[in-house]
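From the thread on structure requests for the teaching lab: each student submitted one protein with a one-line request. Submission from student K.M.:

"Model PD-(D/E)XK endonuclease-like domain-containing protein from Rhodococcus baikonurensis, tokens only."
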Amino acid sequence: MSSRSAKRLAAPTSGPVQKGGRGTDPGADLERRVGRTEFNDGALVRLRVPIRVDADSGRDVLTDIDVLAVDVDGRLRISRSILECKSGKGQSGEPDRLLWLAGLQQFLGFERAVLVRQTASRRGRGLARPLGLRTLDVATLAGREAAHAWLPARFGHLEGDECAAAELRTDTQLKG
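Reply posted by the TA:
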């Protein structure tokens, strides 16, 4: 990892959950599903990693990476991936999100970027190709999950009220 991108990555956090580990946010649930699947494919995974920039206090978090995956292949080459998860059903923001994701990938110097949505439109897939991005729809994600003999029920979360409170504070800081 270059020192430029290492400085921008901060300590990871996980999404909001209610007591008992059940998700209250469909976006956070999708992030955990994607993270579990990437983990079971062999990647080191972190959820909701803040991207920091040099700015005034309180304004230094630029955005966050929903799912950060780091793969090491058989020749010990490292590949870093951004997986941006959107749980909404509408397609109107898909081109904007793809253009944003391409810029974030270039800004961080990551090798792979994937937009995860309920469905990927033909227009979105067509725009993703020349930008060097990939798309993943929930049906394909479900197929990847089914291909694994076992996936943990929970991922990226520790149980308990204190953990839920810490995650709520983090969400407030990241999302405003």
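TA comment: Residues 95 and 124 are 6 Å apart (CA to CA). Residues 3-175 form a domain with the Trna Endonuclease; Chain: A, domain 1 fold (CATH 3.40.1350.10).
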